[in-house]
Amino acid sequence: MALIKFGGGVTDMRGSIGGSTFARNKGGNYARARMKPCNPRSTLQSARRARMGHLAKYWSNALTEQQRDDWRAYAAGTTWTNRLGDVIEINGLAAFLRVNALVLLYSSTVIAAAPLAMGHAGGVTLSFAAESDTSKLQLAEPGGAFSKSTDGHFLLLSMGLPTEAGRLSTPPGFRYLTHTAGNSVAPPSYPLEIASAYTMAAGQRVTVSAMFQDESYRISGPHWATAIAAPSS
Hints:
3 helices
């Protein structure tokens, strides 16, 4: 389904209609032929579906009505945006799923209580190097709201499919890499060495996406960083 924004005509469009997919990159809006993805039932895909199914059942069977009301209040009191950057409304279940889908990537414990503070986690800045010969990423210490010395801070990292250096649009195929967590007793050391999700060739553009989750379990929007893969020095 495509999202369309009308102005004096159509001013923005994201998604697919018929045989065309509409998107935007640094060069502006563009359209390409729609590619219908296959359903490979990969291990990653199956694990994601299992997590979402587990959370949906948890919402219905494990949460109290007061806890569900708290999630509804959090959803109503927080500003959410869609792919066009427009403000939208989501319900309590959607907010619960968004938060806990990240939590279950690094923990087996579902967070039943909604965040006490409205809003999202703060922003972060990323910088990394991509080593084509070792298939590793070297993540520098993140800046912004994430603190390596604060308990309960989590930064969850994903990597897109490496592309040609001149490609400016967001790459496909993002895969979860790992997380880095704040620790007041033994803060993590940086640069953090991370195994790449894909084989990289020298000269390719590598894109990493990060979601920040603070000590209240509020989440940020995605934050991006790119690097050109090169042999390790």
